[in-house]
Description:
- The structure holds 2 protein chains of 2 kinds.
- In chain A, a hairpin with a 2-residue loop joins strand 9 and strand 10 (about 220-225).
- Chain A has 2 domains: about 1-85 and about 165-250, 3-Layer(aba) Sandwich (Rossmann fold), CATH 3.40.50.300; about 90-165, no CATH class.
- Chain A has 9 helices and 10 strands.
- Chain A has helices at about 40-50, 80-85, 105-115, 120-130, 150-160, 180-195, 205-210, 230-235, 240-250; strands at about 5-15, 15-25, 30-35, 55-60, 65-70, 90, 165-170, 195-200, 215-220, 220-225.
- In chain A, about 40% of the residues lie in helices and about 25% in strands.
- By secondary structure, chain B is an all-alpha fold.
- Helix content of chain B is about 80%, strand content about 0%.
Amino acid sequence: MAVLEVNNLKKSFDRTEVLKDISFSLEKGEVLSIIGSSGSGKTTLLRCLNFLERAEKGTIAVNGKEIFNGENLKKTPESVIRENRLHFGLVFQSFNLFPQYTVLQNITLAPTLLKRGTPEEIEEKAKSLIARVGLTEKTDFYPCQLSGGQQQRVAIARALALTPDVLCFDEPTSALDPELTGEVLKVIRDLKNGDCTMIVVTHEMEFAKSVSDKIMFMADGVIEEMGTPEEVFGNPKSEKTRAFLNSSLEQF
Amino acid sequence: MDSIIAWFNDFKADFILNFVDQQRWKFITTGLKNTLVITLLSLILGVFLGIIIAIVRSSYDKTYDEMRGGVKKFLFSLANGICRLYLTVIRGTPVVVQLMIMYYIIFASSRNSLMVAVIAFGINSGAYVAEIVRSGIMSIDAGQFEAGRSLGFDYKSTMIYIVLPQAFKNVLPALANEFIVLLKETSVAGYVTIRDLTMGGNIIRAATYSAFLPLIAVALIYLVLVIFFSKLVNILERRLRRSER
């Protein structure tokens, strides 16, 4: 059974249609990379999945259970939306760590407030997550004392602390210096081996090619092309995909 | 040499006349006590009012689009309207006038002028604190709110655990400034028969017909108080900034 199923998602800002009829599904443990030029709706799609934006139409189902339906959006209470949001974890482009808390506190804050176990259990889990992203020696540091790459790894651990069904990355390396992107991508690669279902919006084509099970190319709010990395990168069917891939390869 | 001794003797006589005779120093000490009481109590009231109003105003701006219709939205709009009216009226009129309206009209039957002054100064200060705190809340990056929401926090927890601590740290210098202004503003409390520090100096001056020492003494005490509180705030600020570069 698909862990995530999105059907006919539509979203517009004022009169601009940003997402036009998006449908796709994702199996457990799969990694989906979303590529496309700016303004194609990649980030908006991710934000709709996390309910940071509300789509107007369409449905989102996780593990076969419908958690969002544009039809009865008005009737859904805020608390239910909050609950459903926890099926998804989100890692931001600009990390958005809480500057007044240490690395450990950043990770334990949400599980503590949501009462996901005893303080000891939460702290133990947080520490194992910190170890997983390789920052054990930075446990009691503040975010400002860390490099961008380290901050992003903390953000990944923070999102994992609530054990989401699907972990979403919104251009996780775009705000990083080139030499720091490697460590973040390595963490994502390790997570894939740990059977984590992920959606990654990215501009790192090589990374998308090597780590993804599926590639989605978006253009002007529609899924222009979707398939395995070999299909999309090796033998793109659509003219737009070919143009985009050519221009993004030319840069190097 | 003689002239210095003469000046010193004059000064000594002046000092004894103004502060020692008939225990006139008591006007200064009771005045100081009243000034501190009014300042501290109205500061507490002002910060309390200010934070509530700032939260109403910024929450209204931030969540208006997401609110669904109905009673809740109407009440929220009403609360926001009241807050805006409060800000307009309080910031648009002089504090002395507000103080006198409180004393002679609203609380005309109360003889506890100290309490009336606390309420008047507290309500006045609240308006300024509200805008200071609101600017602090608005200065926090939208990403912080989104990070909170993506972790399943409701708006209230996001405010309490994530936004307000950062906002408070950012507005501390402005709040300290407001506190200093408030301390000095209480010097108009004499308008409603309160013997604060300024009034104390004034009473001495009226009794002794000597202006220099009472006024300079009052000015020095205010100055020392402000320097002392600024120092305290500096220490607090440095402690809060430890989590930063």
